[in-house]
Amino acid sequence: MSERLHIPSHDQPVTGLEEEPDRLTGGSRFLRACLRKPVDRTPVWFLRQAGRYMPEYQAVRRHHSLLEICKQPKLAAEVTITAAEKLDVDAAIIFADLLLPFEPMGLDFEFAAGEGPVIHKPVRTAEDIAHLRTDRAGDLGYVAEAIAHVAAHLRDRAAIIGFCGAPYTLASYMIEGGGSRNYVHTKTLMYRHPDVWRRLLDKLVSVLRDYARQQVEAGADCIQVFDSWAGSLAVEDYRDFVLPATKILIRDIQATGVPVIYFGVDTASLLPSMHETGADVLGLDWRTPLDTTWRTLEYACAVQGNLDPITLFAGPDLIRLRVGQILDQAGGRPGHIFNLGHGIVPGTPVENVQHVVRFVREHLRHAPPVEARHG
Ligand code: CP3
């Protein structure tokens, strides 16, 4: 774990917070919430907070491709820091992309304008999978370098979130060759050649584990594992074909000493199984009510979410109402990180994102302390 933040271990009693509620920094507030420890106010950050809706990012993007930004650590750090400071959030997610590990595995891809990622030669056969390399995760060192720059700048003002894709979501990009609607190729391989499928997931886990470790060693305080498309799976398929490899990855990342956020979309029916990975925090999308979902999980993990990102196109009054409703559903219980249910979309007014941060803070300023409500 990064030396910058001094987080009490899981079984240490929390002391001092009651007397000094203002002493928490953004970084420690966020990390305490990941570990379900009481905080002075709910930490907040946003999925895709550094992306295309932000004029500062668009200005950088005019001169550099997405991959150039990712591969120039100073630039990636600047984009990360600018967004976190402009929004005044408790955590900064490193600017990178889910698909970066494909390159050292031997898969070329590009981001075609308006189309999303395109993988030139999708992986479809046992032979294709045999050719994937697992020994060059070190080539991704530029992401760790960017994290080190961000850590040196932010110190503990905000936590640094590193990230990687989950085995299923990355396998689906590799096999489909890009985004997909029905995941036909992915599921065909999974059903018909489960041994080959398992080899692919094992290879991904091996690379992702090294990649996440590099990020932690460089100063990431937490790793978010994006299983963005897990919601395309039936529970039985998730359990038989995806859960085992994902659990190994998450446990291996936790062994580096940082908490893991496991995120997916449309996962209402999958959440109890996703919880079995042992992730410290589960991302919730806006289709599942936070209160009942968390109760179903028996409050045994922290939760992150879950405002509909499109609510950010509404007026301030409705945004304030929805933010308040989510905070009320969390009820001040330790272990809630305020976020959207999925990423900010292009065209989102930046001031509305800033309003959310303010509403989260104001809501809690008027609320009784956590201890009074939950004794
Ligand atoms: O705050 C941030 O935006 C952090 C950086 C970040 C990017 N990608 C940069 C990016 C993060 C966290 C990602 C994750 C990512 N990448 C996911 C999971 C995200 C989720 O919300 O579930 C996925 C599925 C990808 C793959 C990917 N990259 C797609 C599908 C696309 C095209 C569609 C899109 O979202 O725009 C990208 C391109 C991409 N990656 C952009 C950014 C800022 C936008 C394009 C650009 O600037 O050229």
Helix-strand blueprint:
Layout: H1 26-34, H2 55-63, H3 66-71, H4 73-87, E1 91-93, H5 102-105, E2 109-112, E3 116-119, H6 126-131, H7 141-154, E4 159-165, H8 167-176, H9 184-192, H10 194-218, E5 222-227, H11 235-254, E6 260-264, H12 271-275, E7 281-283, H13 290-296, E8 302-307, H14 316-330, E9 336-340, H15 350-365, H16 370-374
Parallel strand pairs: 1-4, 4-5, 5-6, 6-7, 7-8, 8-9
Antiparallel strand pairs: 2-3
The general outline is globular
Overall mean pLDDT score? 92
Distance between the termini: 31 Å
How big a fraction of the residues is strand? 5-15%
Low-confidence stretches: 1-16
Strand elements, count: 9
Chemical compounds bound to the protein = coproporphyrinogen III
**How is the main sheet built?**
7 strands, parallel
Structure characterization notes:
- With 375 residues, the chain is α/β, with parallel strands linked by helices.
- Helix content is 47%, strand content 11%.
- It has helices spanning 26-34, 55-63, 66-71, 73-87, 102-105, 126-131, 141-154, 167-176, 184-192, 194-218, 235-254, 271-275, 290-296, 316-330, 350-365, 370-374, and strands spanning 91-93, 109-112, 116-119, 159-165, 222-227, 260-264, 281-283, 302-307, 336-340.
- It has a seven-stranded parallel beta sheet.
- Helix 14 links the parallel strand 8 (302-307) and strand 9.
- The longest helix is centred in the middle third of the chain and has 25 residues, at 194-218.
- The model is unreliable at 1-16 (pLDDT under 50).
- Coproporphyrinogen III binds at residues 47-52, 61, 66, 93, 95-99, 111, 116-117, 163, 179, 226, 228, 342-343.
